[in-house]
Specification:
This protein has helices at 14-17, 20-27, 64-75, 97-106, 122-128, 144-155, 203-210, and strands spanning 2-6, 32-36, 50-51, 61-62, 83-94, 109-113, 131-134, 184-187, 190-193. With 213 residues, the protein is α/β, with parallel strands linked by helices. The strands form 3 sheets. The protein has a 5-stranded parallel beta sheet. Strands 3-4 form a two-stranded antiparallel ribbon. Strands 8-9 form a two-stranded antiparallel ribbon. Helix 4 (97-106) packs across helix 6. It starts with a strand and ends with a helix.
Length: 213
């Protein structure tokens, strides 16, 4: 899977991509992450890519041309049927595990356009036919965090990334509550115990507990 990130701040990804599962996936060539900074594609001699919004209002808007040129670089000569382009907005298609499964099953390239300031000129979305996607009903400073969320969620679902397919929580009976040793944990005068069913060895009952029955 090849992730292509259109962003003004590629260094924002450095620490996350250099740790844990995502780092190993990159090293094992299960995924590749490439960055395209619109500043490298602008005709402005000062590498300026933000402009005042039409209609007035606070803040600045990322211009269409430099973002489009950066995206075209990412697309290159790839088979467009295997390329998906997303555009982050707070009120859009909800990204979830089903969405992640669809992407990793049907596409080889995911291009993510990360807005900043007051957003990206809407004509970018129109021209590219990019799908608006959100990770939640709230507004963030930019699209970099949503891009990291998508990279993480999709990467862990790729065959071989987690070692065992059963490590993907949605593919097994799992609970939000997990426990490890010791069986009885003392803390400030109180004792906190592991639920008895988890110590029983009765896997049928354990699965029922994990499902909330």
């Amino acid at each position: 899977m090849h992730f292509h990130v259109i962003t003004l701040f590629p260094s924002a990804f450095d620490s996350y991509l250099s740790e844990s599962i995502v780092k190993r996936a990159i090293e094992c060539k299960k995924i590749k992450v490439s960055f395209y900074n619109p500043r490298d594609f602008t005709k402005d001699k000062h590498a300026r890519v933000d402009r005042k919004p039409y209609g007035g209002g606070p803040g600045m808007v990322l211009e269409a041309e430099s973002v489009l040129r950066a995206t075209q670089k990412a697309i290159g000569r790839k088979d467009r049927k295997r390329v998906k382009i997303v555009f982050f907005e707070p009120d859009a298609t909800q990204f979830d595990t089903a969405y992640a499964d669809n992407v990793q099953t049907n596409y080889k390239h995911l291009i993510m356009i990360c807005g900043r300031y007051e957003g990206v000129d809407a004509r970018v979305k129109q021209i590219l036919r990019a799908e608006p996607v959100t990770i939640g009903p709230y507004t963030l400073t930019g699209g970099e965090l949503p891009a990291m969320v998508m990279i993480d969620c999709i990467t862990r679902r790729l065959p071989g990334v987690l070692g065992k397919d059963s490590s993907v929580e949605e593919r097994r009976v799992a609970s939000h509550d997990v426990y490890t040793r010791p069986e009885v944990f003392p803390w400030k005068g109180k004792k906190y115990r592991v639920p008895e069913v988890l110590l029983s060895g009765n896997h049928k009952e354990i699965d029922k507990w994990r499902q909330g029955y």
